[in-house]
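Protein modeling request. Please complete all fields; requests missing the sequence field cannot be processed.
Requester role: graduate student
Desired output: 3D structure, token encoding
Chains: 1
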Amino acid sequence: MTIAIEPTTPMPMQAILSELISSCETGERVCLLPISRVLVEATDWLTPGVALFPPDALTASDLRVVEWPARRFAAFSRQMTDGVLELSGDELHWGKGAMTNIDLPEFFGSALLGFKTRLDWQSFLFPSSHEAHLEMLRAEMERCDRTFDLVRFAECDLWTPQKLPGRVGLLADTPYSCGLFYAPEDHESYLIAGEVASHHLLLGIGTDMTDVFVPPMPSGELATLATHALRLYSEALEAVSETSRFMQLMALIEFLADPNDFTKMQHARKAIGRQIAHDKADYLAIQQDFLRLTAEQGPVGIPKQGLRHNIVHFGKRLEDLTTLDERRSVYQRLHRYVGVPISQMVEHGEKDWIFIETMRSAAKVRLGLD
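Delivered output (370 residues):
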């Protein structure tokens, strides 16, 4: 049901950093983003092309940082007259980031993700606005977060949000996201920062990343669909309430049933059932469970008892409808209903959607459902 996360032999930090830098082609830069709520004890590759550095493994001199918010903020403080400082043009755009006052010890004191990226260096050095910098930062955060979607799927579970890693790019104990961009040809780097992430996690201590290596995602239609499904799963994991998590998982099931069209739950539960059932008895049990989860019919004259029906139509909370033990069981079953299809999509990522439809058709015969 889960995606394999394989241990590897750690490499020296300088070897990994040198490999990242030396592999940059013309126009490529090395980007470093902080990641909180993770236990990282040694530098290693998280996935091919993305390195994970423990706190304080790198220093500013390793990447010759020439610009960072706290440096510019200190310069502005010295230039103020009666508490007023007038800025315009590039100074204003860089100055807005300087107001975060993020310093290098904070940044390098975080676990860091390192990878290559390609961006317009002139537009980076001379941005049209502070927001242009934030868009560059957001793009790298979202790109790298796709790798952590696989980590969340393999290492976390629906019942224990305390194990979730932090948001990629968000610096711990601050409301700010930041990223360092290194130009190999100049041997210099710049740290930019600002408000990008809308919220962050508070519960628990996060994810133990010891011996974690994420296998590369295949290239194909199913891999593309799996990438979106993993993002939806991560959003469910990070939901602010159990009711919201449950509803997002219901939407994910409908997506997994048919990513190319809207599918009613009565058809979605059959498609998912055929895909994951061990035998006919298991299939029938899954169908019955879906009725309980969605729109189970009660006695004559009594409203439907299904969980989603009561949440959507009567505004009830999942906590109102179930006990603690029942909710734990619900999440365990839902993890299977979404986990098996996602794993199969990743495993066969180079194939097209027709592969899943063929698998379901064969299962229909195998389960004796014709």
